[in-house]
Write a structure and sequence with these properties.
This protein is mostly beta strands. It has no helices and 22 strands. The strands form 4 sheets. It has a 7-stranded mixed sheet with strand order 1-20-17-22-15-13-14, with no helix packed on it. The protein has a 7-stranded antiparallel sheet with strand order 2-3-4-11-6-9-12, with no helix packed on it. Strands 5-10-7-8 form a 4-stranded antiparallel sheet, with no helix packed on it. The mean pLDDT is 97.
Length: 231
């Protein structure tokens, strides 16, 4: 079964400096039909004006992933990490026992566009941590976040794997789902993507359950998407 979450149906927030679209209930946007998928709790599609950003604030017991689509994030946290996160890179901040951080658009002239993702950890009260990595494309599906941190991936405190899907025009790739109890969630970033026989356009999401195999197909444009494999 494939259930589509259309881009235009997401929750909306507009603060002037920040325009955000919420796939799942978040802050003042509440929809009991869209509270998350398994441990995946938040996918926010954020656009931040030049020079603006999120002032210092705290998190606890959450695995927070950022993926920059365009622009650069300037990150600073209470553990002394001062980082920049450019387009195409992934950041994973384990809030654990507690961490404070700020996130700003590093440019005074160009907008920032990124996805903010929250995954609920399987263990509370762990030590907070910070990871950041760029991943070369060696295949259509690249694992970027795993429970073990194997092969240089970012390690998440949950039975969840995040893949970056990148397809060239007219390319196809199949992701077998051998364990029918697992769930997939696809968030399309760029291009037009067919998931089996269902078509997604940019910003759309797809919740996939009870499918023996999933075929991803691009049309005449390149495709970038994030694919979550969840317990």
């Amino acid at each position: 079964m494939i259930r589509i979450r259309k881009a235009q149906d997401r929750g909306q927030a507009d603060f002037g400096w920040l325009k955000s679209q919420h796939t799942f209930s978040f802050a003042s946007y509440y929809d009991p039909q869209h509270m998350g998928v398994s441990s995946l709790r938040v996918i926010n599609d954020d656009r931040v004006a030049p020079g603006a950003g999120f002032e210092t604030h705290g998190h606890k017991d959450m695995e927070i992933i950022s993926y920059v689509i365009s622009g650069t994030i300037a990150h600073k946290d209470s553990f002394g990490n001062i980082k920049t996160l450019p387009a195409g890179e992934f950041q994973l901040m384990s809030a654990g026992k507690g961490i404070y951080h700020s996130e700003y658009n590093a440019s005074d002239t160009e907008p920032l566009h990124f996805l903010q993702i929250w995954i609920q950890p399987d263990t509370l009260g762990i030590d907070a941590g910070y990871q950041q990595q760029a991943f070369a494309q060696t295949a259509a599906l690249t694992a970027v976040v795993t429970p073990t941190g194997e092969h240089g991936t970012l390690k998440v405190q949950q039975d969840a794997t995040l893949y970056r899907l990148q397809l060239t025009p007219n390319e196809q790739v199949q992701l077998p789902t051998q364990d029918m109890s697992r769930q997939l969630y696809v968030q399309l970033v760029e291009g037009t993507l067919k998931v089996n026989d269902v078509e997604l356009t940019p910003g759309d999401g797809a919740h996939i359950t009870a499918e023996q195999a999933v075929l991803f197909s691009a049309n005449q444009d390149p495709v970038t998407a994030l694919v979550f494999d969840l317990a």
